[in-house]
Amino acid sequence: xxxxxxxxxxxxxxxxxxxxxxxxxxxxxxxxxxxxxxxxxxxxxxxxxxxxxxxxxxxxxxxxxxxxxxxxxxxxxxxxxxxxxxxxxxxxxxxxxxxxxxxxxxxxxxxxxxxxxxxxxxxxxxxxxxxxxxxxxxxxxxxxxxxxxxxxxxxxxxxxxxxxxxxxxxxxxxxxxxxxxxxxxxxxxxxxxxxxxxxxxxxxxxxxxxxxxxxxxxxxxxxxxxxxxxxxxxxxxxxxxxxxxxxxxxxxxxxxxxxxxxxxxxxxxxxxxxxxxxxxxx
Length: 282
Known about the structure:
CATH architecture of the largest domain: 3-Layer(aba) Sandwich
Helix content: 10-25%
Radius of gyration: 19 Å
Strand order of the largest sheet: 10-9-8-7-11-12-15
Order of helices and strands: EEHEEEHEEHEHEEHEHEEEE
CATH class of the largest domain: Alpha Beta
Distance between the termini: 43 Å
Structural class: alpha/beta
CATH topology of the largest domain: Rossmann fold
Number of helices: 6
């Protein structure tokens, strides 16, 4: 079960275009697995911002002088994330976690490729360590619009057997998108499984390339999550079940990690007519 913790902010620091926040949250690190996320209250107790914000967990430490810390990465987009970026050490932060369904790990050593877009690479970096711990080879592809929007490049260099970086504007690495270089990475390294996290168009392209090659792929989707616990139903998307039937499932509970071939990418944002429970149309 997830925990609700009134944690103490340890640090907030800028990393490129993003903010990296560390909060003391005893009990959460021990339960966290790669792919889990936090739901964070923003604005303080007197704020009119009632909904929490969901952030993928980047790193945890379950021991040490602080008794357990959690790190997450975010970009400032609105009032909630602006408020988070203004936190200072010793401020209190109400967090709930770990939430969601994490990545599935292989039971035997495999050749794994990890594909991240922007700060979507955050949950992939602890995943890389977990895979290495199981004897897997890990190759990483990171992409972003520009150099300052890449995240985790140094961590990836330390962990991966190979690293390929792309930027839309060519400010670092190869000019282009991760989908431009992924086919070569998959062929060169004889990849057995792919893990990806990033913008939905990127995930759709990665899923298609894996499907064409018969490579299993897991994706951590970036759907907007309001409650983080499956109540509000704002983060639903159409997913094929093991019985071949489509259901609208919650990214925050059944996800955020899904088998890529089960997601109906072309129907995201709609309720397909063949969905279980869909309204009968005249």
